[in-house]
């Protein structure tokens, strides 16, 4: 009996050098090596033209995708892009060419949703100390928002356990539990919006009173204006996500094509904060 179950180098379709049966087979086999060769050629050309192999954009891109939150939001852009495509296809003629890809689009959307849900385990942990701090300060608006968010995340893990069959509820199917839980995150967006409004009001009140923390220097002025702009951008984000969750939770039936576009926009806003 051979030491290896299948030949390592050749003699088997899964070997490093399998026998090529046709042109399509050859194309499939050389795709990876060709990409590697092109990447190496690019680096050699870059070195010759600029004197260095390093690139600011690639370094920044690598730092960006190294963040779990950044990968999550990019995945959400694609996930909601798939939802938008499926919504658009519902309005297209049956012989439209993209219909052949509808099962693939649906599979990508579902796979990304579950990958993101799996990676959300533990995401509630940083919010627990923040909840305690909010209660200590008697900041009931933030405390309420944190409470709802933590509840949603814990119940999202329960949905994962239900879907995997690790938990079984007599009164809820997995999807029924999920749709109920989405109502928690829907209300959370309302409180997030209110927190942004409050932050903007506090900054503007300080500006009116010439508080040194926001008017004492050019840097302080710029930081205050940036904070206001960031809050305004997030307010747009929370409006978009509130509408999305109304649809996804089944509270209000809308159309997937524009809900998907809204999801892409809100996810891009989140991703931009990681960039």
Kindly describe this structure.
This protein is mainly alpha-helical. It has 2 domains: 1-54, no CATH class; 67-274. Helices cover 73% and strands 0% of the residues. It has 10 helices and no strands. The N and C termini lie far apart (55 Å). The model has no long low-confidence stretch (mean pLDDT 95).
Features:
275 residues, 2 domains, 73% helix
Mean pLDDT: 95
| Structural class by SSE content | mainly alpha
Name the overall outline: globular
Ranges where pLDDT stays below 50 over 5 or more residues in a row are none
* Separation of the first and last Cα atoms: 55 Å
Spatial extent as radius of gyration? 25 Å
Regarding quaternary structure, how should these chains be classified?
single chain
- Total domain modules: 2
Number of extended strands = 0
- Proportion of residues in β-strands: under 5%
The helix content is over 70%
Topology:
Elements: H1 23-50, H2 56-65, H3 68-89, H4 102-118, H5 127-136, H6 140-164, H7 174-208, H8 212-215, H9 218-248, H10 256-274
């Amino acid at each position: 009996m051979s030491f290896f179950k299948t030949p390592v180098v050749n003699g088997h379709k899964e070997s490093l050098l399998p026998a090529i049966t046709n042109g399509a087979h050859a194309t499939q086999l050389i795709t990876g090596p060709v990409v590697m060769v092109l990447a190496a050629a690019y680096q050699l050309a870059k070195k010759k033209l600029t004197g260095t192999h390093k690139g600011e954009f690639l370094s920044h891109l690598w730092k960006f995708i190294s963040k779990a939150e950044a990968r999550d939001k990019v995945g959400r852009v694609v996930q909601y892009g798939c939802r938008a495509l499926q919504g658009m296809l519902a309005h297209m003629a049956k012989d439209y060419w993209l219909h052949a890809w509808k099962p693939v689009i649906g599979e990508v959307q579902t796979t990304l949703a579950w990958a993101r849900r799996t990676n959300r385990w533990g995401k509630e942990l940083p919010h627990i100390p923040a909840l305690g701090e909010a209660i200590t300060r008697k900041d009931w608006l933030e405390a309420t928002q944190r409470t709802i968010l933590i509840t949603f995340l814990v119940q999202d893990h329960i949905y994962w356990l239900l879907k995997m069959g690790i938990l079984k509820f007599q009164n809820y199917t997995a999807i029924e539990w999920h749709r109920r839980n989405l109502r928690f995150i829907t209300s959370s967006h309302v409180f997030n919006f209110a927190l942004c409004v409050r932050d903007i009001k506090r900054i503007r009140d300080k500006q009116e009173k010439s508080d040194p923390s926001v008017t004492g220097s050019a840097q302080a002025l710029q930081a205050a204006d940036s904070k206001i702009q960031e809050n305004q951008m997030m307010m747009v984000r929370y409006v978009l996500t509130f509408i999305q969750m109304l649809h996804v939770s089944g509270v209000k039936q809308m159309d997937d094509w524009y809900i998907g576009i809204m999801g892409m926009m809100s996810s891009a806003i989140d991703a931009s904060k990681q960039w």
